[in-house]
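input
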Amino acid sequence: MKEQTFIRNNIQKWERAETVVEQAAEQSPDVLAKAYVDVTGDLSYAQTHYPDSQMTVYLNGLAAALHNAIYSNKREPARRFITYWTREMPLVLYDARKLLLISLLIFIGSALVGALSQMADPSYCRLIMGDVYMDMTEANIAAGKPMNVYGSMPQMMMFNSITLNNIGVALRIFGMGLFTSIASGLMLFYNGIMIGCFDAFFAQHGMLGVSLSTTMLHGTLELSAIVIAGAAGLALGNGWLFPGTYTRLTSFRRGALRGLKIVISTVPLFVVAGFIESFITRMSNLTLSQRLLIIIPSAAFVLFYYVAWPMWVHRRQTRQQTDKH
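output
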């Protein structure tokens, strides 16, 4: 059977299964079980005949969602919280792995644009960052305290302000997906330009090492979270921009749910990054080794949770489902 024929013959059944997942709390165990059996049967067929298809990836995610819905009522709340972050979220991230890569490439590309623009025009940073901020930064450099901006506010006040602001930025990037994924991509692009011109500015003053070793204390988690929020916005925008075989409304709902889950995963990152920025980054007497003790584990965690762990969870689930058949 051709793949398109298989999809056409079963798409309505899969859409009903999605409705069952969304209304799992109101469904009887028999309804959940029937939907799960139907979807896993189709998944087994798809894995055999269309192993590299995106449709197979979709059915795998739908089967996982039904499996979680069936057993969710049997778990205690604490257990449910743990499995959400260790199983459900990684599967969402695995499904969005291409969007995460695209978001990262947009951010890196925009940072390079910002850096090259600043190197070509030393006043470029003022256009992006504003005169007030740049005047303060130049004054700090002249006083021999280039990173003094991080010590200009009481710690708890700074923590609350920065954390809420960064979460707000992530939500705005995600929300821009309502105006297509292009809008989210543009907002992500602007944030990358800011970072690029900021680092280029310090490079022009011979302080790139000082800048990076200081800002990446919190920036490793913070910038990673911005990139992840960009992927959430792309998921939302693509949901209604590229409906595929779904109705536009159904596709939009799927994209919105997936994007929301992705952007929620950034909240802990922003909280930890806000704490580091408010209480640790201001410590100008830290040695490079001490800074790396924070930067390297932060980078390792992001790579583990957003890249390695989703791949492992996906492979484990696929293996378990294959064993059942």
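quick obs: The mean pLDDT is 88.
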